[in-house]
Amino acid sequence: SYYLKESRGSRRWLLFLEGGWYCFNRENCDTRFDTMRRLMSSKQWPVTRVGTGILSSQPEENPHWWNANMVFIPYCSSDVWSGASSKSEKSEYAFMGALIIQEVVKELLGKGLSTAKVLLLAGSSAGGTGVLLNVDRVAEQLEEMGYHGIQVRGLADSGWFLDNKQYRRTDCIDTITCAPTEAIKRGIRYWSGIVPERCKLQFKEGEEWNCFFGYKIYPTLRCPVFIVQWLFDEAQLTVDNVHLTGQPVQEGQWLYIQNLGRELRNTLKDVTASFAPACLSHEIITRNHWTDIQVKGTSLPRALHCWDRSLHESNKNGKTPLKGCPIHLIDSCPWPHCNPSCPTIRDQFTGQEMNVIQFLMHMGFDVQKMAQQQGLEPSKLLGMLSSGN
């Protein structure tokens, strides 16, 4: 099932894949079915939905895509959009994420997609990873059906995970405690998950799980993809076992968090189009404040507009990047929320908003020590933090 908002004058189509983790064995899929039914079945879905962020039809909230045809594909397959298996003796559940996307695309061709110029496959969290796994397949599907004029592109938000070592190793019991690699290894078997052929060829048989990690699949993709990723992604920290609750953060955790930002920044250095703010958050493109976040003075809608233009221009003449219209935007400051445009943080217990200094002190951040490490006076460091430098 899917939701559609037609915009008859437009030849741009935005297909959005919803996120929401996944389950990888009978036990945790049963739990998910009991506690998060809407992510397992379409039975209780509402008749209409309101689009926000990049799915909004208000120009103020969505400057460059507001009049596109919008399609929202809810996530009920729990397989990171990779499954292609029907219900069997072995499993009580069907996992058909990859097939759902293909069917929706097929049906939309009769509703105007056949004359599209651009199809942007977007998604957040598990939907963002779903974009990386499916964007080339959608392009191939349209080509095979004879629609050669549609440019297929991807926009992956908060789906670029790292397969790093956990801060503290835990046994793989459920989605939250399981190390990312272990969960995906189990999941791909349980779902009969499929990955793109070009990525699969890079790895030995049985190692297809590698293709669920952005930095490994990205170099194999043919379609242009824009990567949006918080440098300190909350879902990544959760699976890495760094839990930022009311207790001050220990020094080991603080170093782990900073290192995570460094590693993530590193994996994005060869990504042509990216937007990576140094914030602690998760998901952005369907949030109504998505226009407020900036990296180096450029907002995300603006960066996406520049990317659109660069793809349009390069089709024409393979020119160098457009002046004053950047598409590779990665924060270089080293701590969570060192970017002053980051979304507001709230104390998880009191719900109170915190400014950067309060947040860092709440994290157990030692201003004296940090100033010493940076070779600064503590007061100077605090000034820089509060002004966001």
TrEMBL record:
One Pfam family hit: PAE
Recorded GO MF terms: palmitoleyl hydrolase activity
Q: What InterPro entries does the database record attribute to this sequence?
A: PAE/NOTUM
Q: Name one GO biological process term.
A: negative regulation of canonical Wnt signaling pathway
The record's family statement is: Belongs to the pectinacetylesterase family. Notum subfamily.
Task: Please give the name of this protein.
Answer: NOTUM carboxylesterase
What species is this protein from? Nothocercus julius
Q: Lineage, please? A: Eukaryota, Metazoa, Chordata, Craniata, Vertebrata
Gene name of the encoded protein: Notum
